[in-house]
Automatic annotation (TrEMBL):
Residues 133-235 form the ARB-07466-like C-terminal domain. InterPro entries: ARB_07466-like_C (IPR058593). It holds the Pfam family VldE. It comes from Streptomonospora nanhaiensis. This is ARB-07466-like C-terminal domain-containing protein. It comes from the Bacteria.
Length: 258
């Protein structure tokens, strides 16, 4: 009868995980990275997928499946669709699945809603900013300028020269000049679909524009919680379409000063 070999002191799950990671690295180096997620799952290792080569940060639900995109692809796709809606020529979208462009252009067939999401990270070391003469901080102004270049003339609110101090919830980013509202009124299916074009574009560009939150149509995307995609937005008044952000896309930028 053979006795069971006991693991040596220090040979714990840590050693096993280290071995699995070494195998994963080897697989990636030989072009067999597709097997790596299975190995990690079997080893009980939960890693940030953004640190691994097969994990593109953006995804689009096409209705037939999920298509992964790089940030560059997501930015090109959302910009192309937005410019196309205005009758203008957009960036080159070769290499992007046509189903992705079709879903971003048309939205879900049954009901308007989110189709694209991206993982993003907040930026360490950002300085806290003061209002400029427009009533926006420089970061918020950069978002406004970038939106204008792609979407043209928009119905805007949520800020004014000198800043605002009322009309929004307690501790609202609007009071700091960090938030902009883009209105799509009245609340119709067509306007909701137009609003989602902007919401998707903002999420795709969130990391480079230091965006913290995008809220629209009972949904919220938050940079810190972006691994979870779009979340239900809980309005303090379910009967108020403005508080539910049904008639406008809200975007705010990171505060800075952390």
């Amino acid at each position: 009868m053979h006795s069971q070999r006991r693991p040596r002191p220090g040979r714990t799950g840590r050693a096993r995980r280290a071995l699995v990671l070494a195998v994963v690295v080897a697989l990636c180096g030989t072009g067999l990275a597709a097997a790596a997620p299975w190995l990690l799952a079997r080893a009980g290792i939960d890693l940030d997928r953004t640190a691994l080569p097969w994990a593109d940060p953006c995804s689009v639900d096409t209705g037939e499946g999920t298509v992964m995109l790089t940030l560059a692809q997501a930015r090109r796709a959302t910009t192309a669709v937005a410019l196309e809606a205005r009758g203008e020529e957009g960036p080159d979208t070769s290499g992007i699945d046509p189903a992705v462009l079709r879903r971003l252009r048309e939205g879900p067939p049954d009901d308007a809603g989110p189709s694209l999401t991206c993982r993003a990270s907040t930026t360490d070391g950002l300085e806290r900013e003061d209002l400029t003469e427009t009533g926006l901080t420089p970061r918020a102004q950069a978002v406004l300028d970038a939106m204008g270049e792609v979407f043209g003339e928009m119905s805007l609110g949520g800020y004014e020269p000198g800043g605002i101090g009322t009309g929004h919830g307690e501790d609202s980013a609007h009071y700091d000049g960090r938030a902009i509202d883009v209105f799509y009124r009245p609340v119709t299916e067509e306007n909701r679909r137009e609003g989602w074009l902007l919401a998707h574009w903002l999420v795709a560009h969130a990391e480079e524009l230091h965006i913290a939150n995008v809220i629209f149509d009972d949904k919220i995307w938050n940079a810190r919680g972006s691994r979870g995609g779009w979340w239900p937005y809980r309005s303090p008044d379910p009967n108020n379409e403005i508080l539910r952000h049904l008639d406008h896309v809200h975007v705010d930028v990171q505060e800075g000063g952390d």
